[in-house]
TrEMBL record:
The active site is at E183 (proton acceptor). This is 3-methyl-2-oxobutanoate hydroxymethyltransferase. It is found in: Cytoplasm. It comes from the Bacteria. The gene is panB. Belongs to the PanB family. Catalyzes the reversible reaction in which hydroxymethyl group from 5,10-methylenetetrahydrofolate is transferred onto alpha-ketoisovalerate to form ketopantoate.
Length: 277
C-alpha cells in the first residue's frame, strides 16, 4: 500500500472519489485501519474521551497526542496520518501554534495536523502552512469550544449561522489549509462548502455531499458507550463482545477449564524423573 499525498487527495476530489478515514489512537487499531485500506487516519484529541475517559477534549495535552501518534505511525506506516492539535496548543499565539504543529512532525512523523476554528485561527493556519506543514481546518461542532457552543450540538442549522460557517470555510482555504473537516452540520451547508472550495471538504456528521467521510473508531466498533451522536453508525458491538470474552475467561479460570494441557510447557525429555529424585 502506498501512502496518499496531498496531490492524490486533490485528484480524488476532482474525480468525485470519496476519501474514507477513521480515528485511531494506538498501534493495533492503526494496523487494522491500514489493512482495511483506510485512506487516512486521524489521531483525534477525542482520545481524551475514548482512551482516557474525560468528559470532553479540553484536558488533553500535547504529550498525550504525540505519544498516541507515535503508536499509530508504527501501526500504519503507509497511511496518511493527521495529528489533532489539542486545546491550548495553538490558541495562545501563532508562535506556539507553529512550534506545536512542528512537534507532531518531528516527534511522531505525522503527515498533517488539524486544528479547530474558523476565521479566528486563520493566522495560525497561515503560519503553520508557511512553516511548510499541511494544515487541515475543522469547523461546525468544535468540541474544544463546546462551552461556547452550548454543548455537543449540531451547528449551522439557521441560515445566518450557516453563512458564517461558509465564510469560515472560505477563509480557511484562503489561509492555506490543504483540507477542511466539517462536523455536525446539515448536508446542504456542507455541500455548498464542497462546491465552493477547491480544497477537499470532509464530513463527520455533515452528510454524503462531501469529498470524504470520517468516523471515530470506538463508535464504528461499538466500544464507546458513554453516548452516541446522531451521526454515528455502529458496525460492530465490540464492547459487548469484549465483556462476553472476559466473562468466559473468568468462568474458565475459576472452573479450571483453563489453562489446559495445550497451554502449558513440557519439561525436556528425561528431566521430570530427575526433578523427583
Ligand atoms: O478528535 C476527533 O476525533 C475529531 C473528530 C471528532 C472530528 O476531531
Ligand atoms: Na478533535
Amino acid at each position: 500500500k502506498q501512502k496518499l499525498t496531498r496531490i492524490q487527495l486533490d485528484k480524488m476530489k476532482a474525480d468525485g472519489q470519496s476519501a474514507v478515514w477513521i480515528t485511531a489512537y494506538d498501534y493495533w487499531t492503526a494496523s487494522f485501519a491500514e489493512e482495511a485500506g483506510m485512506d487516512m487516519i486521524l489521531v483525534g484529541d477525542s482520545l481524551g474521551m475514548c482512551i482516557y475517559g474525560y468528559s470532553g477534549t479540553v484536558p488533553v495535552t500535547m504529550d498525550q497526542c504525540i505519544y498516541h501518534c507515535e503508536g499509530v505511525r508504527r501501526g500504519a506506516p503507509n497511511t496518511f496520518i493527521i495529528g489533532d492539535m489539542p486545546f491550548l496548543s495553538y490558541q495562545v499565539s501563532v508562535e506556539e501554534a507553529v512550534r506545536n504543529a512542528g512537534r507532531f512532525h518531528k516527534e511522531a512523523a505525522v503527515d498533517a495536523i488539524k486544528l479547530e476554528g474558523g476565521k479566528r485561527v486563520c493566522p495560525q493556519i497561515r503560519a503553520i502552512a508557511d512553516g511548510g506543514m499541511l494544515v487541515m481546518g475543522h469547523i461546525g461542532l468544535t468540541p474544544q469550544s463546546s462551552g461556547q457552543q452550548g454543548g455537543f450540538k449540531a451547528q449551522g442549522r439557521h441560515a445566518a449561522a450557516a453563512k458564517e460557517l461558509i465564510e469560515d470555510a472560505l477563509a480557511i482555504e484562503e489561509a492555506g489549509a490543504f483540507a477542511l473537516l466539517v462536523e455536525a452540520v446539515p448536508p446542504e451547508v456542507c455541500k455548498i462548502m464542497r462546491d465552493r472550495l477547491t480544497i477537499p471538504v470532509y464530513s463527520i456528521g455533515a452528510g454524503v455531499d462531501a469529498d470524504g467521510q470520517l468516523m471515530i473508531c470506538s463508535d464504528v466498533l461499538g466500544i464507546f458507550q458513554a453516548f452516541t451522536p446522531k451521526f454515528v453508525k455502529k458496525y460492530e458491538n465490540l464492547g459487548g463482545k469484549t465483556v462476553e470474552a472476559f466473562k468466559q475467561y473468568v468462568a474458565d479460570a475459576r472452573s479450571k477449564a483453563f489453562p489446559a494441557d495445550e497451554h502449558t510447557y513440557k519439561m525436556v525429555d528425561g528431566e521430570l524423573a530427575k526433578l523427583h529424585e
